[in-house]
Amino acid sequence: MSSQTVYVGMIGDLLHAGHLSVLEKARELGRVIVGVLTDQAVVSCNGLALSSFAARKALVESVSGVSMVVPQETHSYRQNLERYRPAYLVHGDDWCNGSQAAVRQEAIKVLSEWGGKLVEVPCTAELREDGPSSRFGAQRFRRLLEAKRLLRIIEVHDAISARIAENATASGRAFDGFWSSSLIDSTVRGRPDIEVVDLKSRLDLLEEIMDCTSKPIIYDGDSGGNLDQAFYLARTLSRTGVAALCLEDKAGRKRNSLYGRTAKSTQTSIKDFCERLRAVKHGVGASQLVVIARIESLVLHSDCDQAMERALAYCEAGADAILIHSVADSPREIFEFSRRFRSVKPLVPLIAVPTAFDDVTASELEVNAFNVVIYANHLMRAASSAMTRAANDILAGDRGGAIRQYSATPKDLLSFFPEPEF
User: Which residue out of 39, 130, 176, 193 is catalytically annotated?
Assistant: First the structure.
């Protein structure tokens, strides 16, 4: 073991003051080896790099004082630590909690085998590797679609639900992005889901969410309005950093699809919706906001032939992805659609929203050629149920402690958004 060897691991996407602080500390301690996570390593830990491994490696190599840049093939540091046996591992202290805590403990254990030490640099907001989502939402979402076979998206409706969803992990899985639901945005404001919540109100809420998350956000834009409204909606969302806009091909007064045929909704013509899609694409440019065309044919009891006709026309008009919607109690009809769609459009991303047929697994959707699954209202449903139970239990027990066994503590709430240190 060379007493002069110092190891730093990073994704190395966008170097900022936080990364430079880590590298500066490493240079003070000795000869710096930087392990840049490969594309496979980043995806395996539910992340995504904005640029390729080769580009990120070249960027880190250009930093003064870096002696060598090597690939880090896994989220774990073990392999490279054992290979280079550094005297020091330098990292920001942001990995002490959350999903990286286990990686940190393993690194400490490996270093102890030859007396190596972990040196941690106090973390600032800039030190977060993934950073806020507001700058590169669309680019990040496009790269996720390319890099992963299936993306899991979940509805969030405020900053706390976004923070909870961002930190959620189980069985090696995490959510890849968030859904901004028109239904839920109406619900939290005590309004029916009939497009009465204005864009400014929804954008104010999105800004709060995007302040505390690195995940791309899909915006549920209902019909998008007329051509001018759709054009300016897309431009506005693109400027704010929203990743994708989803528009549905309904006409007339908005009624939620979960009402099914009883909603008496109608679809707009293929020609009219294609004009709307072209207006949106003209507003944001081909490489910006991801545009999702949501087909309501199966909801309104048209057949798969009509849904296919629309899907192919919408792709021709510029849709980047197709969402095939259904309120049936099984996924059978969307699986038929996916089989037929894939035979002619093997590369266009396909999206499912399994609200009515919620026993289907994400893995089953993946097998049936879907690229994205959206859990469109689940966090609000869970929150509503939990709040109802808590309110009734407090009244029944006549004390706040009645919810102690299943509720977070006040300290838990404080931990979500700790006070800044100056």
Answer: 193
